[in-house]
Design goal:
Rhopdopsin 7-helix transmembrane proteins, about 75% helix, disordered N terminus, mainly alpha
């Protein structure tokens, strides 16, 4: 049985975004361009924050880490998806599939916790401005970022351990463009209902806890600004708009998945593309277009060049 399993699970076959060869060829250039924009946009934000000493503050330190995570998250799946658009047979090795699952959960889990950290940073800055420099010092910022990476790593390993030794003896076709745990579970030659519920509970706890903390933080921040600011509603909306937009973009699909548990292939693929391509592309655009300090730093860099 072990020999059969090893031979069968040596590789998986991706169904891809679609079955039409013409459409796949048409999609190659747009996705290649989008990935290039993701790489340039996110790494530019990181480089800008690192090189401009005016941006050496906790908020921008966390933003640089968010951009780096977005770059990593997209790089796990998008290059493979893009090159597969030109391939007749879209194959990934068993090790490559498990690596994709591990990395996607590391970066996605880490980003959830990092978004909570960014909300905490804004809470301290707005609700406790006099103590901000003492609370959000350099050492604490580094620890908060490390904790987000550690939680992402622990979450990913806990997911991978549950599926690593599953017996695969049937179909090898994954109906997506990357290895996603629910789709891989369907290929196991055993009943995985209990295991699937356990994996969903693991992801659900992390996502739900992060979202509730974010909701509480930004609600409290907005109420604080409304009560203590002369500008009232307009200032309340402008204070953390960028952060809230990014949170909605990241957690919106999660909420949709929980509220709409019916599995529809094209919806699942759309949400997967949204996570891995759209969100990492929009995040740097949102922060650079809505942030005066970032725009000033860009102007300064252009003038120096």
């Amino acid at each position: 049985m072990e020999e059969v399993n090893q031979s069968v699970v040596s590789e998986f076959i991706f169904q891809g975004l679609c079955t039409s060869k013409k459409l796949q060829l048409l999609l190659f250039l747009p996705f290649s361009t989008l990935y290039l924009m993701i790489v340039l946009g996110n790494l530019f934000v990181v480089l800008l924050i690192v090189t401009d000493h005016h941006l050496h503050s906790p908020m921008y330190f966390l933003l640089a880490n968010l951009s780096f995570i977005d770059f990593c998250l997209s790089s796990v799946t998008t290059p493979k998806m893009t090159t597969d658009l030109l391939q007749e047979k879209k194959i990934i090795s068993f090790g490559g599939c498990m690596s994709q699952i591990l990395c996607v959960h590391i970066f996605a889990g880490g980003e959830m916790v990092l978004l909570v950290t960014m909300a905490y940073d804004r809470y301290v800055a707005i609700c406790k401005p006099l103590h901000y420099s003492s609370i959000m010092d350099r050492q604490k910022c580094i620890w908060l970022v490390l904790i987000s990476w550690i939680i992402g790593l622990v979450h990913a390993i806990s997911q991978l351990v549950l599926i690593l030794d599953l017996p695969f003896c049937g179909s090898r076709v994954v109906d997506s463009f990357f290895c996603d745990i629910p789709l891989v579970l369907k290929l196991a030659c055993m009943n995985t209902d209990t295991l699937g519920s356990l994996i969903n509970a693991d992801s659900g706890v992390l996502a739900s806890t992060s979202f509730i903390l974010l909701l509480i933080s930004y609600t409290y921040i907005l109420f604080t600004v409304l009560l203590h600011s002369k500008g009232g509603g307009s200032k309340a909306l402008s204070t953390c708009t960028s952060h809230i937009i990014v949170v909605v973009l990241f957690f919106g699909p999660c909420i949709f998945i929980f509220l709409w548990p019916v599995s529809i292939t094209w919806v699942d693929k759309f949400l997967a593309v949204f996570y891995t391509v759209v969100t990492p592309l929009l995040n740097p655009a949102i922060y650079t277009l809505r942030n005066k300090d970032i725009k000033n730093a860009i102007k300064k860099m252009i003038n120096q060049i």
